[in-house]
Amino acid sequence: MENAVSVKNLTVKFDKMPVLNQLSLELKKGEIVGLIGPSGAGKSTFINALLGMVKPDIGEIKIFGKEIPNRQIMAKIGFMAQSDALFTELTGRQNLEFFGSLQGISKKDLAEKMIKSAQIVNLTADLDKRISGYSGGMKRRLSLAIALTADAPLILLDEPTVGIDPELRRDIWDELREQAAKGKAILVTTHVMDEAERCNQVLLLRDGKFVAQGTPVELKTQYDATSIEEVFIKAGQELERSKNMGVDK
Ligand SMILES: Nc1ncnc2c1ncn2[C@@H]1O[C@H](COP(=O)(O)OP(=O)(O)OP(=O)(O)O)[C@@H](O)[C@H]1O
């Protein structure tokens, strides 16, 4: 299948220090890639680089075969940021309408898509309340609904399930799997290890480097681990050991 995202040798520096260090990734249509890593590892920076909001110092990023930033390509990305960028004085519905119109969705389509994505995140009954009255979890769910309403072929989700109850989390993951089955490409960052198990490919990011990369089964075999959590811990220990030995892996 065609690559939705192709990243080659990406290095991003802040104040001359590499925050992302020679990263490569191929995300195919129909695939979910999970990016996991400790706080400060560079997950959000990686997503921001894909959005063209952070410029690579070295390397190349192509989305659907085109170098970014590119306006036409932006319209093909449904994006959910880590902090909820919502208009607090507007209702959930008005926020969905506003962001949907930015994506160039026609009014008729938007009405239909909004209903579906509000159902997915279980917000149908709260759509006419103002955001100022939403809880943190409700804001996260609305941000996710906005990303899904775009009905874009590439979906980038930065920590989409923080503050979301386990049952709804499961429903959201079922929906993501369904969207992938329809050919969408999805990149999701997460701290939740059992979510990583539901991805086709998992990338472990530490200190700006992919220290392990593969399917959940491959990673568990490689690290002789029974869970992705154990892989994560063992990969971290390995990295620390190689640092202590002065080997820059
Ligand atoms: N605009 C910036 N200028 C300078 N440093 C930055 C900037 N943005 C991020 N950083 C630094 O880059 C590193 C990676 O940050 P990033 O937000 O990508 O990590 P993260 O893995 O998403 O963390 P978290 O899980 O806590 O959100 C951190 O050390 C952070 O302080």
TrEMBL record:
GO molecular function, one term: ATP binding
N-terminal signal peptide: none
Gene3D superfamilies: P-loop containing nucleotide triphosphate hydrolases
Keyword ATP-binding found: yes
InterPro entries linked: AAA+_ATPase, ABC_transporter-like_ATP-bd, ABC_transporter-like_CS, P-loop_NTPase
Top-level taxon of the source organism: Bacteria
Entry keyword set: ATP-binding, Nucleotide-binding
Residues in ABC transporter domain copies: 5-232
Classification via PANTHER family: ABC TRANSPORTER G FAMILY MEMBER 20 ISOFORM X1, ATP-BINDING CASSETTE, SUB-FAMILY H, MEMBER 1
Protein name in UniProt: ABC transporter ATP-binding protein
Species whose genome carries this gene: Lactococcus allomyrinae
Taxonomic lineage from the root: Bacteria, Bacillati, Bacillota, Bacilli, Lactobacillales
